[in-house]
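Annex B. Sample input.
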Amino acid sequence: MSQIDPETARKVAKLARIAVEDAELARLAEELSGILTFMEQLNELDVAGVEPMVSVTPMRLKRRADGVTDGGMPDRILANAPDAREGFFAVPKVVE
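Annex B, continued. Sample output.
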């Protein structure tokens, strides 16, 4: 079981750039120790053969048909362009 002392908690708080009052260091050290203890418990579990989860609820993303829509009208689309040449949008050169 990992035990964090208040001085280590002070170093962790400094590295995380969190302002912690001296009176709160003992409580922070206790909370960090609890987190490490829980992580050690998780490391003891045998997870061989368990597939990684994407979500805690089984679901499948909604999919739509991959079909062409609103195509075949380049003249109407290019009518809104400030500058169009040879069926393409023309943009000013920005790199020499």
